[in-house]
From TrEMBL:
Highest taxon of the lineage: Bacteria
Organism: Nocardioides baculatus
This protein's record includes keyword Zinc: yes
Annotated binding of Zn(2+), by residue: 9, 12, 31, 34
Pfam families associated with the record: zf-C4_ClpX
Residue span, ClpX-type ZB domain: 1-50
UniProt key word Zinc: yes
UniProt name for this protein: ClpX-type ZB domain-containing protein
Family: Belongs to the ClpX chaperone family.
Keywords: Chaperone, Metal-binding, Zinc
Amino acid sequence: MVAREGKICSFCATPGSRDLQLVGGLGAQVCETCIDDFHALLHDPEKRAASKGAFPWEAMSDAEVLATLPQIMASAEQNNAFAHEWVDLLRERNISWAEIGRTLGVSRQAAWERFARKGGDKSETA
């Protein structure tokens, strides 16, 4: 597993570090603890049956839901940063803004406005 310092677990929001390894791809990062927990859940019929049904937040108090909101936002911001990294990769491969926009279902201009780095790639036609 690779250390993902500066990233958080997409499930529990624990920051990755040298001591806490994260793995993942396409934006999701998962810590070893969450992997172990999900593995145990998937391979224990009783735990698996108990996990079906209500979503965890349905049993949470308003205070618990409010306390979780910053973690949700941090995960969303992390995923947005991953999207920027993927667009940067595509631009490095000379994929046009038109193609990126078409893939995202938006115009070339909308893709450029969302993903162009300030002071960096300003080409609208490349």
